[in-house]
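Researcher: Can you fold this with fe (ii) ion in place?
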Amino acid sequence: MAPLSDSFQPFEYDTAIKVLADSSDLKAVPSKFKFVNEPTGLNSDSLPIIDFSALTANDPDQRSKAIHDVGKACQEWGFFILVNHGIPEFLMNSLATATREFFNLPETEKKQYEAKSASDPIKCGNFNVTNTSNQTFTLWRDYLKLYVHPEFHCPLKPPVLKEILLEYTKRIRELTRKLVEAVSENLELDQHYVDEVLKLDSSFQLFATNFYPPCPEPDKAIGLPPHTDPGLFTFLIHNGVAGLQIQHDGKWFNADSPQNSILVNVADQLQIFTNGRCKSVMHRAVVNDERERISMVVANGPSKEAIMGPAAPLVKKDGRAIYRPMKYIEYVEAQLVKSRVNGKPILEQMMIEEDDQVVN
Ligand SMILES: O=C(O)CCC(=O)C(=O)O
Ligand SMILES: [Fe+2]
């Protein structure tokens, strides 16, 4: 790891890591990427599985069981495997092919989207991180991040990407709405109240795709260090190569997905809104030495303008708010430049200690 210099920049478009991994038979991780970690995860057969079709079922018993299951998964794991979600498999496969085509474009084509600041609606490149001792390293991945709703931004190439993303992200917004309704119903929150606060019609949605080339020493580099996501729910699919791990009871678990399922995790604003009931799960992406991996991620937030604090009826029930409110877009952009690993996460910085309560 290199020491932190005054010119430290989280965003970078250097020799894209893909070129580096493609161009030679790389035997060791170059020093710039060095991050020593233990990438092994545990397997669990008790990861929650949610059957989406039961949530929309006409049978009230089936529906209320599904609502209860969603609530439980969000509170116990902050994570579940979504099946029978209704998104056609060919759409998910087309998205995987189109993102692969994007990463295969010539470097000059991709470099035009090099990120300059967190608020750029299209960002592409590599990401540098610092640890608490101010040493820096680069993540073992190339990424493309797009703001896709309420305004839609997308690179021009490959031309099919736009149409596929428009359709896929619209369907993900529909699923998000149903899941938010399920969580609200489970916590006995009034849907009108929830709609008014979250303004999901203009929900701020981010698409990210991550390309992780095979890595010669998977314990000396990391795709994405442990973090939580901004938003309400994050939806993740990948190209069939595992690598996502979630933290549960202090241990790392492999979050492998059955064919055609979607991995869903609770994100920070759902934890804040539910006054800590739902858990924004800590997760990371580890790399492997055999196969390239591509993940396609949609982070679904409330509206950019939503002031996100704990829901008033829950605060009343609990006697206090655990989090300070903050405008959603400000939270997202603070999170996007967050380039310190092992530092205090933003979510934690937003916590109100019990002694800090304002007494009226
Ligand atoms: O690629 C993965 O498995 C994790 C991606 C992720 O956590 C993210 O993009 O926020
Ligand atoms: Fe994430």
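Model: Folded with fe (ii) ion in place. Residues 227, 229, 234, 283 surround fe (ii) ion (ligand 2) (CB under 6 Å).
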